Amino acid sequence: MTGPVVVGVDGSPAGTTAAWWAAREGMTRRLPVILVHSWTTQPLNVPVPQEALSKQQYGQSVLRRTEAELLHRYGDLSLTTELVEASASQALLEHSERAALLVLGSRGHGSAASFLLGSISLHVLGLSRCPAVTVRAGDPAIATGWGHPGTERGDVAVGVEPGPGADALLEFAFTTAEAHGCGVHVVRALPYQYAVAAGRHEERDAVERARLAASLAPWREKFPGVPLVDEVTAGPAAQVLLSAATRGRLTVVGRRRHPSHLTWKLGPVAHAVLHHAPCPVAVVPHD
Protein backbone atom coordinates (compact mmCIF):
# COMPACT_ATOMS: atom_id res chain seq x y z
CA MET A 1 0.00 0.00 0.00
CA THR A 2 1.43 3.35 -1.05
CA GLY A 3 0.31 6.95 -0.76
CA PRO A 4 -0.61 8.98 2.32
CA VAL A 5 -3.33 8.52 4.91
CA VAL A 6 -5.62 11.54 4.45
CA VAL A 7 -8.01 12.61 7.20
CA GLY A 8 -10.58 15.41 7.32
CA VAL A 9 -10.64 17.45 10.53
CA ASP A 10 -12.93 20.24 11.70
CA GLY A 11 -12.28 20.52 15.46
CA SER A 12 -15.23 18.30 16.36
CA PRO A 13 -14.91 15.15 18.50
CA ALA A 14 -15.58 13.05 15.39
CA GLY A 15 -12.75 14.72 13.47
CA THR A 16 -10.39 14.46 16.43
CA THR A 17 -11.03 10.74 16.92
CA ALA A 18 -10.56 10.17 13.19
CA ALA A 19 -7.23 12.02 13.31
CA TRP A 20 -6.00 9.86 16.19
CA TRP A 21 -6.92 6.72 14.28
CA ALA A 22 -5.28 8.01 11.09
CA ALA A 23 -2.05 8.86 12.92
CA ARG A 24 -1.77 5.44 14.45
CA GLU A 25 -2.52 3.84 11.09
CA GLY A 26 0.14 5.99 9.45
CA MET A 27 2.71 4.91 12.02
CA THR A 28 1.73 1.26 11.74
CA ARG A 29 1.85 1.22 7.95
CA ARG A 30 4.80 3.64 7.79
CA LEU A 31 2.86 6.07 5.66
CA PRO A 32 2.69 9.88 5.84
CA VAL A 33 -0.48 11.52 7.17
CA ILE A 34 -2.18 14.61 5.75
CA LEU A 35 -4.64 16.62 7.85
CA VAL A 36 -7.17 18.44 5.64
CA HIS A 37 -9.51 21.25 6.70
CA SER A 38 -11.93 22.95 4.32
CA TRP A 39 -12.49 26.47 5.57
CA THR A 40 -15.38 27.04 3.15
CA THR A 41 -17.27 24.10 4.65
CA GLN A 42 -16.98 25.45 8.21
CA PRO A 43 -19.58 28.21 8.77
CA LEU A 44 -19.08 30.57 11.70
CA ASN A 45 -21.39 33.19 13.19
CA VAL A 46 -19.31 36.24 12.32
CA PRO A 47 -20.04 39.47 10.37
CA VAL A 48 -20.00 38.93 6.60
CA PRO A 49 -16.98 41.18 5.81
CA GLN A 50 -14.88 39.22 8.33
CA GLU A 51 -16.32 35.82 7.53
CA ALA A 52 -13.67 34.49 5.14
CA LEU A 53 -10.75 35.59 7.30
CA SER A 54 -12.36 34.23 10.46
CA LYS A 55 -13.04 30.87 8.84
CA GLN A 56 -9.45 30.61 7.68
CA GLN A 57 -8.13 31.56 11.11
CA TYR A 58 -10.38 28.97 12.72
CA GLY A 59 -9.19 26.34 10.24
CA GLN A 60 -5.55 27.14 10.93
CA SER A 61 -6.11 26.84 14.66
CA VAL A 62 -7.82 23.45 14.21
CA LEU A 63 -4.92 22.18 12.11
CA ARG A 64 -2.25 23.49 14.50
CA ARG A 65 -3.96 22.02 17.54
CA THR A 66 -4.52 18.64 15.93
CA GLU A 67 -0.97 18.56 14.56
CA ALA A 68 0.47 19.31 18.00
CA GLU A 69 -1.58 16.54 19.62
CA LEU A 70 -0.58 13.93 17.06
CA LEU A 71 3.10 14.80 17.14
CA HIS A 72 3.06 14.73 20.94
CA ARG A 73 1.89 11.11 20.77
CA TYR A 74 3.78 10.06 17.63
CA GLY A 75 6.97 12.09 17.43
CA ASP A 76 8.25 10.22 14.37
CA LEU A 77 5.04 10.65 12.39
CA SER A 78 5.42 12.21 8.93
CA LEU A 79 2.65 14.80 9.11
CA THR A 80 1.52 17.71 6.94
CA THR A 81 -1.53 19.97 7.04
CA GLU A 82 -3.66 21.51 4.31
CA LEU A 83 -6.13 24.40 4.63
CA VAL A 84 -8.21 24.24 1.46
CA GLU A 85 -10.86 26.41 -0.16
CA ALA A 86 -12.50 23.52 -1.98
CA SER A 87 -15.47 21.82 -0.35
CA ALA A 88 -14.72 19.05 2.11
CA SER A 89 -16.04 16.36 -0.23
CA GLN A 90 -14.16 17.69 -3.24
CA ALA A 91 -10.87 17.97 -1.35
CA LEU A 92 -11.06 14.44 -0.01
CA LEU A 93 -12.13 12.93 -3.32
CA GLU A 94 -9.24 14.64 -5.10
CA HIS A 95 -6.87 13.16 -2.53
CA SER A 96 -8.41 9.71 -3.02
CA GLU A 97 -6.81 9.50 -6.48
CA ARG A 98 -3.38 9.13 -4.85
CA ALA A 99 -4.03 8.28 -1.19
CA ALA A 100 -3.67 4.90 0.46
CA LEU A 101 -6.59 5.67 2.79
CA LEU A 102 -9.17 8.35 3.44
CA VAL A 103 -10.35 8.70 7.05
CA LEU A 104 -13.66 10.31 8.03
CA GLY A 105 -15.17 11.04 11.41
CA SER A 106 -18.62 9.65 12.20
CA ARG A 107 -20.80 11.24 14.86
CA GLY A 108 -21.97 8.03 16.50
CA HIS A 109 -24.44 5.17 16.30
CA GLY A 110 -27.44 5.73 14.10
CA SER A 111 -25.60 7.87 11.56
CA ALA A 112 -22.94 7.20 8.98
CA ALA A 113 -22.25 10.82 9.60
CA SER A 114 -19.94 13.05 7.80
CA PHE A 115 -17.01 15.18 8.37
CA LEU A 116 -17.37 18.93 8.77
CA LEU A 117 -20.70 19.98 10.24
CA GLY A 118 -22.88 17.30 8.75
CA SER A 119 -21.74 17.36 5.13
CA ILE A 120 -22.60 13.91 3.86
CA SER A 121 -19.68 11.52 4.01
CA LEU A 122 -21.77 8.91 2.25
CA HIS A 123 -20.99 10.93 -0.90
CA VAL A 124 -17.26 10.54 -0.25
CA LEU A 125 -17.59 6.87 0.66
CA GLY A 126 -19.50 6.25 -2.55
CA LEU A 127 -16.99 7.96 -4.86
CA SER A 128 -13.58 7.52 -3.23
CA ARG A 129 -11.01 5.88 -5.49
CA CYS A 130 -9.17 4.39 -2.50
CA PRO A 131 -10.42 2.63 0.65
CA ALA A 132 -12.22 5.02 3.00
CA VAL A 133 -12.53 4.43 6.75
CA THR A 134 -15.15 5.89 9.09
CA VAL A 135 -14.26 6.27 12.77
CA ARG A 136 -16.85 6.98 15.46
CA ALA A 137 -16.51 9.96 17.74
CA GLY A 138 -15.35 8.94 21.20
CA ASP A 139 -14.53 5.36 20.22
CA PRO A 140 -13.12 3.96 23.50
CA ALA A 141 -10.62 1.75 21.64
CA ILE A 142 -8.89 4.74 20.02
CA ALA A 143 -6.54 7.19 21.68
CA THR A 144 -8.55 10.27 22.61
CA GLY A 145 -6.09 12.51 24.36
CA TRP A 146 -2.48 13.45 24.89
CA GLY A 147 -0.71 10.14 24.61
CA HIS A 148 -3.33 7.82 26.08
CA PRO A 149 -3.53 4.73 23.86
CA GLY A 150 -6.86 2.99 23.49
CA THR A 151 -7.78 -0.55 24.38
CA GLU A 152 -6.69 -3.13 21.81
CA ARG A 153 -9.30 -4.96 19.78
CA GLY A 154 -9.27 -8.26 17.97
CA ASP A 155 -9.22 -9.27 14.32
CA VAL A 156 -10.15 -7.62 11.04
CA ALA A 157 -13.66 -8.76 10.06
CA VAL A 158 -14.58 -8.96 6.38
CA GLY A 159 -17.66 -10.22 4.61
CA VAL A 160 -17.21 -11.74 1.17
CA GLU A 161 -19.36 -13.14 -1.61
CA PRO A 162 -18.17 -15.24 -4.55
CA GLY A 163 -16.90 -13.04 -7.37
CA PRO A 164 -14.00 -10.83 -8.45
CA GLY A 165 -14.80 -8.14 -5.88
CA ALA A 166 -13.80 -10.45 -3.03
CA ASP A 167 -10.11 -10.21 -3.87
CA ALA A 168 -9.97 -6.44 -3.30
CA LEU A 169 -11.60 -6.82 0.13
CA LEU A 170 -9.40 -9.74 1.12
CA GLU A 171 -6.21 -7.99 0.02
CA PHE A 172 -7.09 -4.96 2.14
CA ALA A 173 -8.09 -7.10 5.13
CA PHE A 174 -4.97 -9.28 5.07
CA THR A 175 -2.63 -6.34 4.50
CA THR A 176 -4.19 -4.50 7.43
CA ALA A 177 -4.02 -7.54 9.69
CA GLU A 178 -0.39 -8.19 8.82
CA ALA A 179 0.51 -4.58 9.61
CA HIS A 180 -1.22 -4.77 13.00
CA GLY A 181 -0.11 -8.29 13.92
CA CYS A 182 -3.67 -9.58 14.22
CA GLY A 183 -5.87 -12.07 12.40
CA VAL A 184 -8.60 -11.98 9.77
CA HIS A 185 -12.15 -13.19 10.36
CA VAL A 186 -13.83 -13.93 7.02
CA VAL A 187 -17.57 -14.49 6.95
CA ARG A 188 -19.92 -15.54 4.19
CA ALA A 189 -23.66 -15.32 4.73
CA LEU A 190 -26.15 -17.71 3.12
CA PRO A 191 -29.82 -16.70 2.83
CA TYR A 192 -32.16 -18.58 5.13
CA GLN A 193 -34.39 -19.47 2.19
CA TYR A 194 -31.43 -21.15 0.49
CA ALA A 195 -30.85 -23.27 3.58
CA VAL A 196 -34.49 -24.33 3.68
CA ALA A 197 -34.72 -25.00 -0.05
CA ALA A 198 -31.58 -27.10 -0.04
CA GLY A 199 -33.07 -29.40 2.54
CA ARG A 200 -29.73 -31.03 3.30
CA HIS A 201 -28.04 -28.56 5.61
CA GLU A 202 -24.91 -30.51 6.41
CA GLU A 203 -24.16 -31.26 2.77
CA ARG A 204 -24.82 -27.68 1.72
CA ASP A 205 -22.68 -26.27 4.51
CA ALA A 206 -19.80 -28.57 3.57
CA VAL A 207 -19.97 -27.46 -0.07
CA GLU A 208 -20.05 -23.76 0.83
CA ARG A 209 -17.22 -24.10 3.34
CA ALA A 210 -15.14 -25.85 0.69
CA ARG A 211 -15.82 -23.05 -1.79
CA LEU A 212 -14.83 -20.42 0.73
CA ALA A 213 -11.70 -22.32 1.73
CA ALA A 214 -10.68 -22.59 -1.93
CA SER A 215 -11.08 -18.84 -2.45
CA LEU A 216 -9.00 -18.16 0.66
CA ALA A 217 -6.18 -20.58 -0.20
CA PRO A 218 -4.12 -18.02 -2.18
CA TRP A 219 -4.38 -15.54 0.70
CA ARG A 220 -3.29 -18.14 3.25
CA GLU A 221 -0.24 -18.76 1.08
CA LYS A 222 0.51 -15.06 0.57
CA PHE A 223 0.07 -14.18 4.27
CA PRO A 224 1.17 -17.33 6.15
CA GLY A 225 1.74 -15.39 9.38
CA VAL A 226 -1.78 -13.98 9.56
CA PRO A 227 -4.20 -16.14 11.62
CA LEU A 228 -7.41 -16.82 9.69
CA VAL A 229 -10.90 -17.79 10.83
CA ASP A 230 -13.45 -18.50 8.08
CA GLU A 231 -17.14 -18.89 8.74
CA VAL A 232 -20.18 -19.76 6.63
CA THR A 233 -23.45 -18.85 8.35
CA ALA A 234 -27.08 -18.76 7.26
CA GLY A 235 -28.69 -15.39 7.86
CA PRO A 236 -28.88 -11.79 6.63
CA ALA A 237 -25.46 -10.68 5.40
CA ALA A 238 -25.42 -7.49 7.46
CA GLN A 239 -26.37 -9.34 10.65
CA VAL A 240 -23.71 -12.01 10.09
CA LEU A 241 -21.00 -9.41 9.49
CA LEU A 242 -22.05 -7.23 12.42
CA SER A 243 -21.86 -10.28 14.68
CA ALA A 244 -18.26 -10.85 13.54
CA ALA A 245 -17.48 -7.17 14.08
CA THR A 246 -18.57 -7.12 17.73
CA ARG A 247 -15.02 -7.25 19.07
CA GLY A 248 -13.22 -6.50 15.81
CA ARG A 249 -10.43 -4.04 15.18
CA LEU A 250 -11.84 -3.06 11.79
CA THR A 251 -14.75 -4.17 9.63
CA VAL A 252 -14.31 -4.29 5.86
CA VAL A 253 -17.15 -3.96 3.34
CA GLY A 254 -17.09 -3.50 -0.41
CA ARG A 255 -18.52 -1.07 -2.95
CA ARG A 256 -18.60 -1.33 -6.72
CA ARG A 257 -16.77 1.35 -8.69
CA HIS A 258 -18.79 3.25 -11.28
CA PRO A 259 -17.41 4.71 -14.51
CA SER A 260 -19.03 8.08 -13.86
CA HIS A 261 -17.80 10.31 -11.04
CA LEU A 262 -21.41 11.44 -10.63
CA THR A 263 -22.82 7.97 -10.01
CA TRP A 264 -22.35 6.12 -6.74
CA LYS A 265 -24.16 3.61 -4.63
CA LEU A 266 -23.57 1.89 -1.31
CA GLY A 267 -25.37 -1.41 -0.89
CA PRO A 268 -27.67 -2.32 2.02
CA VAL A 269 -24.94 -4.31 3.81
CA ALA A 270 -22.50 -1.39 3.69
CA HIS A 271 -25.22 0.98 4.95
CA ALA A 272 -26.11 -1.30 7.86
CA VAL A 273 -22.49 -1.84 8.90
CA LEU A 274 -21.70 1.88 8.68
CA HIS A 275 -24.66 2.63 10.93
CA HIS A 276 -24.20 -0.10 13.52
CA ALA A 277 -20.67 -1.51 13.65
CA PRO A 278 -18.96 -0.71 16.98
CA CYS A 279 -15.51 -0.42 15.38
CA PRO A 280 -14.07 1.57 12.46
CA VAL A 281 -15.43 0.53 9.06
CA ALA A 282 -13.45 0.43 5.80
CA VAL A 283 -15.34 0.75 2.52
CA VAL A 284 -13.19 -0.77 -0.25
CA PRO A 285 -14.02 0.03 -3.89
CA HIS A 286 -13.78 -2.81 -6.39
CA ASP A 287 -14.59 -3.48 -10.05
UniProtKB/TrEMBL annotation:
<dbReference type="InterPro" id="IPR006015">
    <property type="entry name" value="Universal_stress_UspA"/>
</dbReference>
<dbReference type="InterPro" id="IPR006016">
    <property type="entry name" value="UspA"/>
</dbReference>
<feature type="domain" description="UspA">
    <location>
        <begin position="156"/>
        <end position="285"/>
    </location>
</feature>
<protein>
    <submittedName>
        <fullName>Universal stress protein</fullName>
    </submittedName>
</protein>
<comment type="similarity">
    <text>Belongs to the universal stress protein A family.</text>
</comment>
<feature type="domain" description="UspA">
    <location>
        <begin position="1"/>
        <end position="136"/>
    </location>
</feature>
<dbReference type="InterPro" id="IPR014729">
    <property type="entry name" value="Rossmann-like_a/b/a_fold"/>
</dbReference>
<dbReference type="Pfam" id="PF00582">
    <property type="entry name" value="Usp"/>
</dbReference>
